[in-house]
Every structure is written in C-alpha cells, then in structure tokens.
Amino acid sequence: ALSVNGELTKSQFVAKVLLVALFTGRMMGGMGSGIRLMATRTHIARLTKRDQRPAQQARFLFAFTVGNGIGPLLAAAVKMLDICSNTQPRFLPTGFAGLTLSICQFIAASQMRCLVDLPDLLDREESRVAFLEEPEVQRRRCLIM
Questions:
Q1: Residue 46 contacts residue 105 (beta carbons within 8 Å)
Q2: pLDDT in tens, 109-137
C-alpha cells in the first residue's frame, strides 16, 4: 500500500482526493436538495389557501417522487436505443420499484390531510378548552370525531 520510503504513491493520493471530493459533493448535493425541498413546501404552505394546501402539497410530492422513479426508466429506454451494445439494461426493476413507491407515497400523502392542516385546525381557544376539560369529556369528544 505504501511506497518504499513510506509516502503515498501518486495513484493512492489521487484515489484519496477523489474520495474526499465524492463525499463532499454528495454532502453538498444532499444539503442543497433538502433545503430546496423544504423551501418549496414552505412556499406552498404560505402561498395557498388553507383548504387547498393538502392538494398542493400532494401534487408537489407526487411530481417530486415520480421524477425520481421515472429517471431510471428513461435511462433504461435510452440504453435500449443503443444499437451498438449487446447488453441489456439492468436498472429497469429499479425504475419500476421507484415508480411504485412514488404512487404509494402519493396515496399516503393524499390521505394525510390532517398532518398538513394540523397547525391551522388547532387554534389557541380549542387547545385551552381541551386542556381544561375533564378526561371523560375528552374521551367522548374523541369518540364523536
């Protein structure tokens, strides 16, 4: 692994530099996409009306995840168009799995309306009244809802 005098060889040095560059790039890419995702969801929440927020959030989430699911399918289609190659694409199952997960996530997001609307549904007066009520009254309210 080391050369005769204890120093790294040129190829080992390049490999270590490339490894650090890979980790740094992946970290920056992850932070950037996370910030963009949360900023977009925040803007949707602030710019849409209260009754339209769940639908807008679900549309955004569906578009975001379907894009991730369709990417490998498009890559497989482009690979199939390559007439010079004799190998078959191997990431077609990954694309189908991503697309299936995207559809499941869309269904789950459309059913979780109360998570998106929860801050708007609980105002201070309702929270205070629920806190001061007797446990039996709270239990009956939960059964009614």
A1: no
A2: 665 555 555 555 555 454 454 445 555 55
SS3 for 134?
Answer: coil
Instruction: Identify the residue with better confidence: 64 or 49.
Output: 49
Question: Where do the H-state alpha helices sit in 112-134?
Answer: 113-121, 124-132
Residue 106 identity (one-letter amino acid):
F
What sign results for the dihedral spanned by CA atoms 18, 23, 24, 29?
A: positive
Q: Cα 67 to chain center, whole Å?
A: 11
Q: What are phi and psi of 84, to 5 degrees?
A: -85, -20
What are the E-state strand segments in 22-67?
none
- What whole-number distance in Å separates Cα of residue 134 and Cα of residue 40? 41
Sheet strands (E) in 10-142: none
CB 69 within 8 A of CB 63: no
pLDDT tens column, 76-105: 777 776 666 656 656 667 667 777 777 777
Q: What is the pTM of this model?
A: 0.38
Contacts of 128 (CB under 8 A, 6+ apart): none
* Sign (positive or negative) of CA dihedral 124, 50, 36, 31: positive
Torsion of CA 100, 103, 105, 111, to 10 degrees: -140
